[in-house]
């Protein structure tokens, strides 16, 4: 793992708040440590030494899940502002347009969806007389989605200067839609390669386990001696580097 990932994982750890949904991810991380310790070193001590790998893997997976959530929220946001646009054209004020749009989105995605959680917070803010542009900006910052944040900034500027909000929202929907279409096209193109990458990640372990079962003692010279430890450590580092490289190749950010 490179220094950037190590630094990112450490920063996340300092500010992270555990959640019950993290248990499956943590258990998979522990399983990976046990697997690496067994395959590369055949040692319980090695498992203990490699335990930090579970820590870094955990936060890497959390980062991946966060990116997926960000993309999903972007799609849901596009539908939300499309509903807002429809309400604006029907004669609603922008604040009331968001209120009506929330009802539509609840029917489309459910009250417990990501976008509805944010929309409900916006409505609560409006009841407390917080300006809509500030609520949208906070939404953009918390979501980590650049499209939402950029929309909030442009929306605030347009509202202050008396710009055409209907035209701005229409253009925003067009831009986000094109971006989503590109992401879907990329997803289709790399889906087969992603499956191949997942298979290739498991092939080395399958080969080692197969040979270990069919030819007991074949890998014995590589365990519990200095030369074997050095060689297997090099192999493990090469595997981790290949894993990170494959993840970078197949996870294209638009």
UniProtKB/TrEMBL annotation:
Grouped into one coarse class, the protein's main location is membrane
Gene Ontology CC: one annotated term: plasma membrane
Segments crossing the lipid bilayer: 43-60, 202-220, 226-245
InterPro entries in alphabetical order: T2SS_GspF_dom (IPR018076)
Pfam families, sorted: T2SSF
What subcellular compartments does it reside in? Cell membrane
Origin species, per record, is Butyrivibrio proteoclasticus
Establish whether keyword Ion transport is in the entry: no
Q: Which residues form the Type II secretion system protein GspF domain?
A: 83-211
Q: Which UniProt keywords apply?
A: Cell membrane, Membrane, Transmembrane, Transmembrane helix
Q: What is this protein called?
A: Tight adherence protein B
């Amino acid at each position: 793992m490179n220094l950037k990932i190590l630094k990112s994982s450490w920063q996340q750890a300092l500010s992270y708040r555990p959640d019950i949904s993290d248990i499956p991810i943590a258990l998979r991380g522990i399983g990976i440590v046990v697997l690496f310790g067994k395959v590369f070193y055949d040692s319980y001590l090695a498992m203990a030494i490699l335990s930090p790998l579970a820590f870094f893997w955990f936060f890497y997976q959390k980062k991946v899940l966060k990116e997926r959530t960000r993309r999903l929220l972007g799609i849901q946001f596009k539908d939300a502002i499309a509903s807002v646009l429809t309400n604006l054209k029907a004669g609603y004020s922008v604040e009331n347009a968001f209120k009506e749009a929330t009802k539509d989105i609840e029917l489309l995605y459910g009250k417990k969806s990501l976008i509805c959680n944010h929309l409900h917070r916006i409505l609560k803010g409006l009841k407390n007389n917080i300006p809509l542009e500030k609520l949208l900006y906070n939404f953009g910052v918390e979501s980590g989605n650049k499209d939402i944040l950029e929309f909030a900034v442009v929306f605030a500027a347009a509202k202050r200067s008396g710009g055409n909000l209907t035209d701005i929202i229409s253009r925003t929907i067009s831009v986000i839609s094109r971006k989503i279409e590109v992401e879907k096209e990329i997803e289709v193109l790399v889906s087969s390669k992603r499956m191949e990458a997942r298979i290739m990640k498991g092939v080395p372990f399958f080969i080692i386990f197969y040979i270990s079962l069919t030819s007991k003692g074949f890998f014995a010279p590589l365990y519990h001696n200095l030369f074997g430890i050095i060689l297997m450590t090099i192999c493990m580092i090469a595997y981790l580097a290949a894993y990170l490289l494959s993840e970078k190749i197949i996870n294209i950010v638009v």
